[in-house]
Design a protein that fits this description.
Elements (H helix, E strand, L loop, with lengths): L2 H5 L2 E9 L11 E7 L2 E6 L2 H6 L14 E4 L4 E2 L10 H5 L9 H8 L13
């Protein structure tokens, strides 16, 4: 299924421990998540039961649920965006012999990189 197709669906993730960084991070609360068109529309305990009983749910409108995912005994966390990523380190892991941190820092940081040619500027 393509990304546009997924984004036009209604999904319920039910009965999972939903991570909330401002809540109890050691024992997250059991909650349900309603996702409408790829956007989290509601999070809360009992949402799935309301939907299963066909009761009115404002966030759902007149849409039907396309998929229900049972997250019992699972931890549900948001998708993260990693804005700090060392791809060169990850891609080359295990290629070179491990060296002490201090020696690695001498050659791995931008000040140690070779100067760019004027043609590349």
């Amino acid at each position: 299924m393509s990304a546009p197709e997924i984004a036009k669906r209604v999904t319920v993730i039910k009965n999972g421990r939903v991570y909330d960084h401002d809540g109890d991070v050691d024992q997250p609360l059991l909650s349900d998540i309603l996702i409408v068109d790829g956007v989290i529309a509601a999070v809360g305990a009992g949402l799935a039961k309301v939907i299963e009983r066909n009761e009115n749910l404002v966030e759902l409108g007149d849409r039907r649920v396309d998929e229900i995912i049972d997250a019992t005994e699972k931890l549900v966390i948001p998708g993260f965006v990693n804005a700090h990523y060392h791809s060169h380190d990850v891609l080359l892991k295990g290629v070179f012999e491990t060296i002490p941190l201090e020696l690695w820092l001498l050659s791995a940081l931008p000040p140690a990189y070779p100067k760019r040619s004027k043609a590349a500027r």
